[in-house]
């Protein structure tokens, strides 16, 4: 059984927790080390038992606490080579034995959990999402996605639990306070995924058998949890899928520890 929990999710900082009871890992640590420790304690986990911090990409909302936690608790950091080069200065000195490198699309193992990083379209040097495999279970995390591609869908397919970005409402973003270049970046091919597009992905995968969905990386200025949930529900409704009955759907909050989901 795998336990999954969103500690923080959104433009202000991201960190997800995944564990099979023995191997405990973080996906990103984009908020202060202190706040991540607080969140881990809140779900009954001991930060000194972490086996790894996996890094998706070098943006500060994903790496802010990575170096601090690694130094404090002697935790290995896993990232691909390009991301290492891009983030190394920002995270500060790391013990050489804790500097671990993976290659995209090649499986590697931490404890009993198999992990595969896959590329995502986003404006970082080499951003990735992750598949986690344990026995017959597959869990996938994919945020910071500019647009959906066939290749990306193939990596999400067959997941028992999918954590997917539902970043913004397009209308809110368009009329909102962001300067135009930033709006263009978010809406662009290498920006972030809208609620509507997240809905389409969720509906597509629900039809293919995925039962549990968590929406994450919500924007503070251009979204709110009820709107993300409602928009995705509406797309599901159009496909005769009912959230709560046919599939589990919930929203990971920006600054609040989420529920622990088991698969
Ligand atoms: Zn990013
Ligand atoms: Zn991000």
From TrEMBL:
Any one GO MF annotation of this record: hydrolase activity
Domain of life: Bacteria
Stored SUPFAM superfamilies: Metallo-hydrolase/oxidoreductase
Cleaved signal peptide residues: none
Pfam families from the UniProt entry: Lactamase_B_2 (PF12706)
Domain Metallo-beta-lactamase: 12-192
This protein's UniProt keywords: Hydrolase
Protein name: Metal-dependent hydrolase, beta-lactamase superfamily I
UniProt organism field: Acetivibrio clariflavus (strain DSM 19732 / NBRC 101661 / EBR45) (Clostridium clariflavum)
């Amino acid at each position: 059984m795998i336990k999954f929990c969103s500690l923080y999710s959104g433009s202000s900082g991201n960190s997800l927790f995944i564990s099979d009871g023995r191997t405990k890992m973080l996906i990103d640590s984009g908020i202060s080390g202190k706040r991540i420790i607080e969140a881990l304690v809140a779900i009954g986990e001991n930060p000194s038992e972490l086996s790894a911090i996996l890094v998706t990409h070098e943006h500060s909302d994903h790496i802010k606490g990575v170096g601090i936690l690694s130094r404090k608790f002697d935790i290995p950091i896993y990232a691909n080579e390009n991301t290492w080069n891009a983030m190394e200065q920002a995270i500060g000195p790391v013990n050489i034995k804790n500097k671990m490198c993976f290659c995209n699309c090649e499986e590697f193992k931490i404890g009993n959990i198999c992990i595969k990083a896959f590329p995502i379209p986003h404006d970082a040097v080499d951003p990735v999402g992750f598949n986690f495999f344990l026995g017959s279970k597959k869990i996938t995390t994919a945020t910071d996605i500019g647009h959906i591609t066939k290749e990306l869908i193939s990596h999400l397919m067959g997941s028992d639990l999918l954590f997917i970005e539902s970043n913004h409402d397009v209308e809110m973003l368009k009329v909102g306070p962001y300067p135009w270049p930033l709006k263009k970046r978010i809406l662009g091919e290498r920006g972030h995924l809208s609620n509507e597009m997240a809905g389409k992905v969720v509906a597509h995968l629900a039809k293919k058998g995925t039962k549990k969905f968590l929406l994450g990386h919500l924007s503070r200025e251009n979204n709110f949890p009820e709107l993300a949930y409602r928009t995705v529900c509406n797309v599901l409704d159009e496909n005769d899928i009912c959230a709560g009955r046919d599939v589990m759907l919930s929203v990971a909050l920006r600054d609040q520890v989420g529920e622990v989901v088991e698969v």
